[in-house]
């Protein structure tokens, strides 16, 4: 059992309201995954089930191989950033961090390190009430990182942030998770900003999982465009060669590479062309960077 989060036919009712109806998905170890769906689709419910804060009405939830409701010990391996965290506003940043570190059995050194990782180490002596929204979210992330979690569950980590702070937080999540080797689930209903962060998707709507899988695979399945990163000794020349192909939608020049938007219906032809160009020395290597989430999502939802 290698999946970090595993839902099988999960139902969750709140009184007579059915929030999840037969949700099944699996998130593999190491993925930075997006749990995507509109308001009320069941994202927060899914995260709370994974954390063991809620009991499924029916079906199986396994996290790191254990049932988080009946084995709450597994929570020690999960970092959670709630949707609307509530902090003691008069406390200093350091006081809260140290307090939570103690609760999680983490050292003060680890608390300092988490603060450094998210860039709030200079604010340790400040009262929490003085932090901007972006820095409050960084604090929430630092708290989630305490105790060396194997899994991070982040519920709308960019809610209420301005566009720049959104991008900063998501880059931070990506960098920190790869540094700590953690599996990450980010819930969101804002697709474009997740584009450069997630490599795995769970698409949810009205309590049902419409699809899940690696972004690249879903892009092919739904014929969404894909982004390739191609290393080359001559970006300009290569771009000129590729842009004339009818299935190439756009090219962005980098210093020693180019990024190419390719219609996924033609990815085989595109890769064959890259192989030819590699033979001529114009392509060094290439990889699929991602698929366009917005297009995948639209296609999955319209079914
Ligand atoms: N405690 C509760 N009691 C009753 N209904 C609830 C409760 N919590 C959630 N719901 C309902 O369950 C459904 C799923 O809610 P959930 O919070 O999981 O959605 P979400 O995808 O996180 O939405 P959002 O994007 O608004 O955060 C919604 O219809 C919501 O109104
Ligand atoms: Mg929610």
Task: Please tell me about this protein's structure.
With 303 residues, this protein is an alpha/beta fold. It folds into two domains: 3-85 and 144-213, Rossmann fold; 222-302, Alpha-Beta Plaits (2-Layer Sandwich), CATH 3.30.70. 33% of the residues lie in helices and 30% in strands. It contains nine helices and 13 strands. It has helices spanning 43-51, 93-103, 108-118, 133-145, 163-180, 215-221, 235-243, 267-279, 293-302, and strands at 3-14, 17-28, 32-36, 58-63, 78-81, 151-155, 183-188, 200-205, 208-214, 225-231, 248-253, 257-263, 285-291. The protein has a six-stranded mixed beta sheet with strand order 5-6-7-3-8-9, sandwiched between helices. A four-stranded antiparallel beta sheet has the order 11-12-10-13. A three-stranded antiparallel beta sheet has the order 2-1-4, covered by helices on one side. β6, α5 and β7 (183-188) form a beta-alpha-beta unit. The radius of gyration is 21 Å and the shape is globular. Residues 14, 17, 19, 37, 39-45, 83, 189 line the site of adenosine-5'-triphosphate (ATP).
